[in-house]
Amino acid sequence: MIDGSVVDTRPTKIMYVAEATAHGGRNGYVTSQDGQLELKVAMPPALGGDGNGTNPEQLFAAGYSACFHNALVLVGRRAGLDLSGSTVAAKVGIGPNKQRGYGLAVALSVSLPVVDEDVATKLVDAAHEVCPYSNATRGNIEVTILLG
After folding, report:
1. Which among 6, 53, 114, 145 could disulfide-bond with 40, CB atoms 3.0 to 4.6 Å apart, if both were Cys?
2. Calpha distance 107→31 (Å, rounded)
3. Cα distance between the two ends of the chain
4. CA distance 21 to 10
5. pTM of the full predicted structure?
6. Burial bucket for residue 11 (CB in 10 Å: 0-12, 13-18, 19+)
């Protein structure tokens, strides 16, 4: 929402479609249509599993951190800044919600060692508006962004 109005963040044109298939849910494997991804998935020990594989939360954290970092570099470039050495780490938490289902929470830790804190804050805010993961989660998932 900007100035009380809802902002439409849906794409106006689809430029790429990723396709993946889960086999066996949280205790199986996932594959991508192009063969680039084939991973064993397993419940983490904190959720009663053996942890002998990745899990959807790790995959979401990897995707969000990569996407947000790319958005950050893009807005930095637009501002004439080289953000070499910057990083974005994501933590994705899962737990029960009030509707007898489950929800996610995300914490992004952004490191921008080459710019001062005021500039870093502006860049992070701009990246949060550009990033497709941020746009998809806005209003649905609590996302905390920490500058460090």
Report:
1. 53
2. 27
3. 27
4. 24
5. 0.92
6. exposed
Q: 72, 50 in Cβ contact below 8 A?
A: no
Close Cβ partners of 87 (under 8 Å, ≥ 6 residues apart): 69, 110, 111
Other CB atoms within 10 Å distance of the CB of residue 146: 12
Q: Which residue has the tokens 């804050």?
A: 121
Dihedral angle sign, alpha carbons of residues 138, 142, 140, 131:
positive
Residue carrying the six token digits 């430029």:
15
- Residues 6+ away with beta carbon under 8 Å from 128: 68, 71, 134, 143, 145
Query: Quick one: tokens of 76?
Result: 């930095």
Q: How many residues does the chain have?
A: 148
pLDDT, tens digit, for every residue of 94-128?
999 999 999 999 999 999 999 999 999 999 999 99
